[in-house]
Amino acid sequence: KLTSLALQPVITPELVQGRVHVRCSYSPSSPEPPVQYRVLWSRLSSSGKREQIHQETTPQPFSHVEMDGTKLRLGDTVFCTVTAFRRGTPEQQSLPEDSKGFYAGIKFFPESLEIAEDGKEHVLTVLSTVPIACPGQDDSCKITLQLSTEDLGKSNQAPGPPDIALSACQVDLVPGPCSGSSCAAAMVTVTAVTDFAQDGNRLSRVRAQPVSPRDPLWRAHTPRDVKVTVRDLPTGNCYSFTDPHIITFDGWRYDSHKIGTFLLCRSDARAFEVHVRQWDCGGHHSVTACNCGMAAR
Question: What's the fold here for domain 106-231?
Answer without folding.
Answer: Immunoglobulin-like (2.60.40)
